Amino acid sequence: MAVTEAVRPRLVTRLRTGSALLGPAFVAAIAYVDPGNVASNISAGARYGYLLVWVIVAANLMAVLVQYLSAKLGLVSGRSLPEALRARLSRPARLAYWAQAEIVAVATDLAEVVGGAIALNLLFDLPLIVGGLITGAVSLTLLAVQDRGGQRTFERVVTGLLVVIAVGFLASLFVEPPSAAATVGGLIPKFDGSGSVLIAAAMLGATVMPHAVYLHSGLVRDRHGRPDGVRRHRLLRATRVDVGFAMLLAGAVNLGMLLLAATNLQGQEGVDSIEGAHGAVAAALGPGVALLFAIGLLASGLASTSVGAYAGAMIMQGLLHKRIPLVLRRLVTLTPAIVVLALGADPSAALVVSQVVLSFGIPFALVPLIRLTADRDLMGEDVNRRSTTVAASVIAAIIIALNLVLIYLTVTG
């Protein structure tokens, strides 16, 4: 009994210390469950059933390695990925690199603001443009929390929203469980025509998000600085746990979205849009589940647009070494989304297209990340193992190849 009582305080202390190290990966994970994911995954499930389950599983496995490398870069080098790039690029190259990153940031904001607007329309019947403005305004409030309350307060708020997102999109699986056999069958990689390739690319763009790759390195650096020796190794172990738990939760939510559509919406007319899916969910599973769906979508839009704006500011500061007022920067990336809503464009189609744009930005984040974390001069004894570099290079090659196929199908289709 005495031994047990002596061990228990140490165990509690270790658990508390370990949990205190978690957080940055859960902020990055918001990018993996944004409204673009909802549109892509619902479309995939409604059109192709369980066919593309393997895409979600593969994309989230890729994300685990990618996000860990990003976090390791920030922890070991003491630099964010944009800062490390600035040190190695000429001024013209930095400007060009920043320009493509800004285009990706605009596409990111488009998905997140439109998703928030759709959720507010479903919940309160607000016009989409009003919902978009409210989503943008709330994102500024959440960013103010980060500015005034500090990073850990922001991490707690965002992690809370991530839990709301998970509940919102996983609740339906308990009401109407998916087919286990069909889900396992969907793990076999295959396509069904060019349309499934397009959706797969959109799903990939919605899962491995460029701004999450840039952001995670800065989040870890800001949280822990550049530790030495034993503390760095302990933090690297904690980071692996942080990334593992965060990506597991994000992957479960993504899979839940697809299984929801595959189980309840496949073959129905007009359900490959978020609004149509919401209506079909209400009809099939009841208004309670539909309400949770809409609340999850709203939490997704509000959290992801805040995280996206945070990432955009970090990218600009890292690459150009310049800060601009947060409100001005928010307006720059928010304006295209508001214009799309004002013009009456199909919001769900805009979401899917935005994810395809994001998939084109992934190589610009992945290739430098792999090269930097494989550089012994920068990473020292924590440089990537050869097997890690090979695995990360294969991931980058798969993503780039899928994008080239997508370009070909778009041009010839």
UniProtKB/TrEMBL annotation:
Q: Which residues cross the membrane?
A: 12-33, 48-69, 126-145, 157-175, 195-220, 241-262, 282-315, 327-345, 351-370, 390-411
Protein name, entry field: Divalent metal cation transporter MntH
Q: Does the keyword Transferase apply?
A: no
Which family is this sequence assigned to? Answer: Belongs to the NRAMP family.
Q: Where in the cell is it found?
A: Cell membrane; Membrane
Task: Give the residues annotated as coiled coil.
Answer: none
Q: What domain of life? A: Bacteria
- Topology term for the membrane: Multi-pass membrane protein
Q: What is its main location?
A: membrane
